[in-house]
What does this fold into?
Amino acid sequence: MPNTIALAKNYVSLLDEVYRRASVSADLTSDPQMSRAGANANEIIYPQISVTGLGDYDRNSGYTTGAVDLKWVTAKFNYDRGTKISVDVMDNEESRNLAFGMAGATLMREKVAPEADAFTFATLASLENISKSKDTITNAGQFLDALLTAWSRMDEDEVPQEGRILYATSTLLNSVMALDTTKSREILAQFAVKKTVPQARFYTSIDLLDGKAPGEELGHYRKGTASYVRTEDAAPVSGKHYYTMSGSTYSEVPSPSAADIANYYEQTQAEARNINFMIVHKPAIIKFDKHTASNIIPASSNADADADISKYRKYGMVDGYKNKRAGIYMSYT
It folds into this structure.
């Protein structure tokens, strides 16, 4: 879409910016040394280890024989996003050099950081076999009870207590901090890091807008909507949910039949729910950027227009170790 730049009056030197906080999920960034390149350029492999347990010791034959199973598991990069911002040199000059000078910083603060957080939490929320609970939390007391339930569940699953990070909505975390009781202080003190997350970045799923399709020209992301694809099953699979489409509405089929299977759809993404809080044991996840490009092309090198260009691209991944899914606990509405 065309740039919208209000030309500055000579005596105005202030910039009206949107309030946005920096990324809150940066604490989860992994050590890239824990992975190595896979067979294909768009994947990495990481080690997954398991060992057999103890057996009875025999005084004649000695020890039972154990085994170590070390596998290299493949994970694909799942985030590749970027944009190119072009500002005409005269627009920039007449806005007192604010238009281009602030474009990059504004992009990082208002678009890149919020989207990175939203993608991180939505991806972790969608992983199979994580611990989760659907809760209605309206006050600090209910939040504390939910935190204790989550903490106990992770203890029972033998997740190390050290290194657990608490992410919660500002409303919930601030409500507990306002209590300032011995109980609230002790519960919060158990977490290595406590971070408030704006609700607009805290959904069980998001839709990444491509910046091209009708209605998606502005790019960025939105709260996840339900999506469906036509089934490839030749006959109904027991326990699987199928849907039929009427106009733009999908309805679940109560009794799927083989005769109508060609008209059925499967849900690939459920409508997003709000996340109340998420506890993450950092060693349970993989999160890093393989490639980040941020550079400027001056107007003198732009063959298409008399405009400066700012480019940004980020290519990376968010995933969870398959053997450590208990290290992620999510409460949602």
Q: What stands out?
A: The chain is about 20% helix and 30% strand. The helical segments are 89-94, 98-125, 140-156, 170-179, 182-189. The chain has a mean pLDDT of 90.
